[in-house]
Amino acid sequence: MERRTIGATALEVGAIGLGCMPMHWAYSASQQSGETALRTVHAALDAGATLLDTADMYGPFTNELLVGRVLRERRSEAFISTKCGLLVGEQHIVANGRPGYVKRACDASLRRLQTDVIDLYQLHRPDPEVPVEETWGAMAELVSAGKVRALGWCAIGARARRRYGAAAGTGAGMYDATIRQLERVQQVFPVSCVQAELSVWSREALDRLVPWCASRGVGLLAAMPLGNGFLSGTLTPGQGFEPEDVRARHPRFTADMMAANQPIVAGLRRVADRHGATAAQVALAWVLAQGRHVVPVPGTKKARWAVQNAGAAGLRLTAQDLAEITALPGAMGSWD
Length: 336
Ligand SMILES: NC(=O)c1ccc[n+]([C@@H]2O[C@H](COP(=O)([O-])OP(=O)(O)OC[C@H]3O[C@@H](n4cnc5c(N)ncnc54)[C@H](OP(=O)(O)O)[C@@H]3O)[C@@H](O)[C@H]2O)c1
Known about the structure:
Blueprint: E1 3-5, E2 12-14, E3 18-19, H1 34-46, E4 51-53, H2 62-74, E5 79-84, E6 86-88, E7 93-95, H3 99-113, E8 118-123, H4 132-144, E9 148-155, H5 158-164, H6 176-186, E10 193-197, H7 209-215, E11 219-223, H8 255-260, H9 262-275, H10 279-288, E12 294-296, H11 303-310, H12 319-326
Parallel strand pairs: 3-4, 4-5, 5-8, 8-9, 9-10, 10-11, 11-12
Antiparallel strand pairs: 1-2, 6-7
Helix pairs in contact: 1-2, 1-11, 2-3, 3-4, 9-10
The structure holds NADP nicotinamide-adenine-dinucleotide phosphate.
The site of NADP nicotinamide-adenine-dinucleotide phosphate (NAP) has 30 residues, from helix 11.
């Protein structure tokens, strides 16, 4: 698989990563055994997808434990990307960016992951109660201590940013507050990578965030590159989702909005048919085409989809394909 470098670091990864979140968080995990999840991670590595994206809060903890079982055998083949700063409480998810907490969280992640170093340690959300320089300073000390190789910042979703403090905008200005925070923490320690939603139907990051990262030698991990599965074309309007599945409450996944957004899937399928590929692979190849510093991390529970997604790294879209995809209608249904 093509390799890409994470920001200005010398750290190389397969151009397509694996998002491990759906195995234990945000989607229905029913009918999935731990062994199936294990097979999926192994299949992704076999297909050249080295970057495994997880977080302590996925599960909580079970996702890192699962990845740790794989790392025990295949540490040298994997690039481990995990996160700290969010705690799963009885009722709510709360941010904790206190320096002492962050250091304890890192030690706990290292134990669960069965490794002595985390390649990319990301702040899941800034804590509105703690100056971000303090949190980032503690994370920088983890690099000095040799527990972490590089630091990353998550800038996910207007709804999450509203809940966790940073001002949430929409459209072109959606990431302005994020960029201001990134410029503050850059004064403390280099940001190697930013994780943000980027897909054919969520393109706001292209306005300012993706160019900001490119101009400063910062990598961009594209989260939700398949539009939570919609862009694969395998979901049917009105199919329904289990209550724990984030799509049961997502405004783009009502039956009406899924029907209204079908032209996006149809457009991806037209391009896919020309290449003998799938709509999911075209959606990922489009994300890859947004810059050499961009690495998509499609999430899946299934080995066959992990392999299919890895195959998108070999798909070269033409200028006409890219123009056709860019011209597709914007998505209907928004959190705002
Ligand atoms: N930092 C953050 O706050 C944050 C937030 C969201 C996501 N992320 C990261 O980004 C990763 C990706 O986001 P995501 O998993 O939410 O969304 P996604 O990658 O856009 O879509 C995941 C969904 O697509 C389905 N899927 C995957 N490959 C497919 C294929 N080839 N054909 C058909 N369906 C396919 C999966 O189904 P199955 O699950 O049934 O396999 C899953 O339901 C996460 O795993 C996580 O690592 C980070």
